[in-house]
């Protein structure tokens, strides 16, 4: 059961990440069109605004949730490998940029503020590129382990199946909430991430410390 839940979590992470990247690329094309063709500005901006609300934001939340859940429910951890830590940092920067910059500007443009500024077009291109970089990191897994991993004496255990299962269910629940409310609402995802992070912390604190003899046997 644990393996099946983990595979489902990986599948959802891949699908949501690809959706995030393609939505960002589509957004860049629409915003570029709003600048290149004055006659299409209003329609392009309106479509971009809806694309951000109902696809990009939902996919970004799901990708972030499943990514953090995978890190916290498997021995990879969040800070044990540089490539995982880099992916987490890129994700947090992208989420901040999307919530604090992209969405408010798109909302203003949707109310007739004119074509998208050049910086916004460049930002959406950078967002799509950043997701592509994360995909490369997931495949190449470069740079080795961090000092956090080198200080620890044992690999963290896999989490029991309800935790990765919750990571799968939460994004699906929040898709329903987004449709019902009319705006992105990652409520279940936030709750699940808190629960998974706390469970991870408790598992690390309560695990037995290996003796010198057992460490020597593993080596």
Which key phrases capture this entry?
single chain, 219 residues, mainly alpha, 8 helices, 0% strand, elongated, disordered C terminus
What is the secondary structure topology, with strand pairs?
Elements: H1 2-36, H2 41-73, H3 82-110, H4 118-140, H5 147-151, H6 162-181, H7 187-206, H8 212-218
Helix pairs in contact: 1-2, 1-4, 1-6, 2-3, 2-6, 2-7, 3-4, 6-7
Give me the number of helical elements. 8
Mean pLDDT: 90
Count of domains: 1
Low-confidence stretches: 210-219
Q: What's the shape? A: elongated
Instruction: Please bin the fraction of helical residues.
Output: over 70%
Structural class: mainly alpha
Quaternary state of the chains: single chain
Total strand count, please? 0
Percent of residues in β-strands: under 5%
Radius of gyration: 20 Å
Pattern of helices and strands: HHHHHHHH
The first-to-last residue Cα distance is: 30 Å
